[in-house]
Amino acid sequence: MTGHEALNPIHPAVLPHLDPVFIQLYNEHVANTPNKPIDLSILRSKYSVLYSYGTGPAPEPARIYDTTVPGHQGDPIAVRVYEPASPGPWPVHIDFHGGGWGLGDLDTEAHICKHLCVKANVCVIDVDYRLVPEHAFPIGIQDSFAALQHIHATGAGKFNIDASRISLGGVSAGGNIALICAHLARDASIPLKLVAVGTPVIDDIARYATAGESPFASMQEMEHAPTLNWARLKWFDTLKWGSLAAEGTEERERQIREVKWYANALQAPSFEGLAKTVIYTAGCDPLRDEGEAYARKLVEGGNEVVQMRFRGVPHPFMHMDKDLWQAKEFIDMTAQHIKNTLHG
C-alpha cells in the first residue's frame, strides 16, 4: 500500500486548537486535494457544495419557490422563499448568504434556510444579491437593503407575511450585510425584531499589509487556519476593492462615497437603538475577534446582545452539521432565537 503526505495539511500552529472531529473530517475530504490557482468561475460553480461532505439532511418546508424583488436602483434580483406548514401570515426571516462578496447564490445556505423555516415556524426569504467584481462594492449591501425595504412594504400581500415581525441573518459576508442593514433599517424606521449572524466579516483588512498589522489577535493566531486563512481573506479583499473604478477617476470617487462606513462596520456612526442581536463566532477563525469586538460595541450602545464562541471549529463550521455538534447547535440555537423572538 502506497501513500503520501497530505498536500494541504492543517498548519501545526492551528492543529492543537481544532476539534478532533473536524480534523478527521478535513483530513478525509480536503487534505489530499492538490493546490491549484484560484479561478473565480470554477470556484463559483463549486462554492455551494464546497462543504457538502459535512452537510447533513435538512427538513423540508411546505413550499419552496423562487421569485424576484427590486434590488438597488430597482434592478430585479432573485430571492428564494421557504414557507412553513402552518397557515400565514407568518413572521419572516431574511437571509443573506456568505461568500466574500464575490461568491455564493441561493443554494449556498439552502440547508440552513430549511432548518430555520421548519424549526422556527417562519417564512424564510433568501436574497441573491449581486456580486463583485462584475458590480461595484457595496452592491451586496445596497441590493440587500433594497430587498428588505420591498419585503417590509409589500410582503403582507406578496409573501403572506407579518411585516411587523422581521428578523435578519447570514453567515460571513452575509452576516456583515445583516448587521449593516440593521443600522439602515433603524434609520429608515423599518422595525426589526432580531438580527442573528454567524462568523461575520467586520473590519476592512485592506488597511493591513500583513496579518500582524491587524489589531485583532485572532488574525495572527489563526493566520493559517483551515478553510479560511489570511491569504484567502486578502484574495477576497482584492476582489472586493478591484470592483471599483481606477484610482484617480471621478467614478471611483463617487463609488467610495457610496461605500461610506460599510467597509468597517465598527465605524458605524451610531450603535444606539438597534434590534436585539445574536453573534456567533468560531474559535479557529481569523475573523473571530472582530466579530466579538462588534458585539461589544452593540452592548456599549445599550442594545440587547447574545454573543457566543464555538470553540474548536473554523469559519464555515455551520455548513458541517452532519458531523460537528457545534454546527448542529448553531442551527438549532439560531432557530430557537428566531422562534422565541418572532413568535413571542
Helix content: 25-40%
- H/E element string? HHEEEHEHEHEHHHEHEH
Radius of gyration: 19 Å
| Cα-to-Cα separation, first versus last residue | 60 Å
In the predicted model, the low-confidence regions spanning at least 5 consecutive residues are none
The pLDDT mean sits at 95
Total number of beta strands: 8
Give me the number of helical elements: 10
What is the CATH topology classification name?
Rossmann fold
Measured by DSSP, the beta-strand proportion falls in 15-25%
Structural class: alpha/beta
Q: Report the sheet with the most strands, covering strand number, pairing sense and barrel closure.
A: 8 strands, mixed
Produce the secondary structure layout:
Layout: H1 20-29, H2 40-47, E1 63-70, E2 76-83, E3 90-96, H3 110-120, E4 123-128, H4 139-158, E5 161-171, H5 173-187, E6 194-198, H6 217-221, H7 230-241, H8 250-259, E7 276-284, H9 288-300, E8 305-314, H10 325-342
Parallel strand pairs: 3-4, 3-5, 5-6, 6-7, 7-8
Antiparallel strand pairs: 1-2, 2-4
Helix pairs in contact: 3-10, 4-5
InterPro entries: AB_hydrolase_3 (IPR013094), AB_hydrolase_fold (IPR029058), Carboxylest/Gibb_receptor (IPR050466)
GO molecular function: hydrolase activity
Domain Alpha/beta hydrolase fold-3: 95-318
